[in-house]
Amino acid sequence: MSRTAKLKSTKTRRSFLYSDLLTALRSRIANGSYPPGSRLPSLAALTKAFGVSAITVRRALRELVYEGLVQGHQGLGVFVKTKPRIHRVLAGDPDRSIGDEIRRAGFVPRLAEVNQGVIKADDKIAARLGLRPGASIFRHQKQTFANDEPVALHRLHMRPSLARTLKKELGNAFIFSLLKKHNIPIADLRCEFCSATVTEEESKLLQLTAGHPILRVDYTAIGPEGSPFLLGETICRPDRFVFEVNLPQRGKSRPRRPER
Amino acid sequence: MSRTAKLKSTKTRRSFLYSDLLTALRSRIANGSYPPGSRLPSLAALTKAFGVSAITVRRALRELVYEGLVQGHQGLGVFVKTKPRIHRVLAGDPDRSIGDEIRRAGFVPRLAEVNQGVIKADDKIAARLGLRPGASIFRHQKQTFANDEPVALHRLHMRPSLARTLKKELGNAFIFSLLKKHNIPIADLRCEFCSATVTEEESKLLQLTAGHPILRVDYTAIGPEGSPFLLGETICRPDRFVFEVNLPQRGKSRPRRPER
DNA sequence: CTAAATTTGTGCGTATGTATA
DNA sequence: GTATACATACGCACAAATTTA
What we know:
Strand order of the largest sheet of chain A: 4-5-6-9-8-7
CATH topology of the largest domain in chain A: Chorismate lyase
Low-confidence stretches of chain A: 1-5, 8-12, 252-260
Shape of chain A: elongated
Number of helices of chain A: 8
Helix content of chain A: 25-40%
Oligomer: homodimer
CATH class of the largest domain in chain A: Alpha Beta
Structural class of chain A: alpha+beta
Radius of gyration of chain A: 23 Å
CATH architecture of the largest domain in chain A: 3-Layer(aba) Sandwich
Order of helices and strands of chain A: HHHEEEHEHEEHHEHEEE
């Protein structure tokens, strides 16, 4: 045998080969046996070392890719990724743009416009903006890169009237900075966090295989009069982002204690 | 052929069979051809209908499972899931417990304690709570179910002194209600959202296969004196939860105590 | 420049295990 | 016990990308 114990074979087993291999590889990455930037043994080497078939190794590798721990390149190998996450703080400070935070994580940020234009709002978008279904709505799509790796896709929906003011600059600036620059106040920002998997369009733009999980933030900016005027979606690589919010709790839980 | 066009075969193709099948099945679910609760055609039927091999169908099905659109049961079939999501609002109102929100989504909530006890804090936990590494810390784990399906796993870390007050009730109640009941005020709640994949322990508790993506919320409760006193983690099925927060934007320097 | 070798990634046919009816 | 169905696993083939001779 030698360095690598073969995985247990199939009789009356309660764990699965791909799962055992997955945790084995995970722990080797975690403990530094496969340090960041290094190449994993080739598929052929792994099948031999662990005594399993190629399809089993492939599955474990794919899960590691979904997890963001490794990245494969055809003809080259599978490499352990360095893992600094972009820490996105949604804190009511429009100065903290996503570009700053990409830089703070040690990457070089880049912004690229995907497309923009007026479309007809579907029912959901219209409802959220308080418009009738089918109303004309301006949509803008752009992408952010970190060290030239696409990490997030940004979609904005707003009324054409607002778009007239902003559209020229949307390709090169981040939305909250723009709103601030034009003195358009936001009274409230409602955010929704969920995860999903890429659609076909997103998989091309983010360079991910079909079925790759993503982290998604939907936000609604509400004006001082209480009406929503801007919808945003951020679809991002889950291995690249953490979102942070602060919620001051001056709600009703206070036992009216005398302060200080 | 007949009703179902065979997928294009391999010559000079730029899309992949599993991906085409994935989008085909997704759209059939979306447009109601496969309504919620119904059974998908068996694996054998799908291989025949689409003219692809079993492994290709399996892969597409697994992605659909990760997506939360379907759920397989051995010996029975693959079923389209009904998709009401639990809408978790973190809004500074401790009365909105997760149990209420599960009920609001149309499910019957259930709570089950997994385990609890005093352990030694690892470096990360200790740092976040302002303790020295290795300090004794109380950990509590429980699970929530929606219609007896496990949907989330909850981990709490707190100092043993605080645990003495709460530990008896932690198994049957939700943490924010408990804090309110015992008049323990929270001044600030810091939340982090990210997605990841299940660990081995989590996969068993949540009944998910290894590698299944999850949505994770880490929160830190901060007392009136400004020091963190409670860490919480919620690991949940991504197809079952949306988290919502409201961020009032009071200009650039937000007054700490607005009124009074 | 071309050809061979290596490596990832998709795909096929088949076998086996396990849960349900 | 028999049939059906999901799920893992094997050996093999081929396409695409990269490196090397």
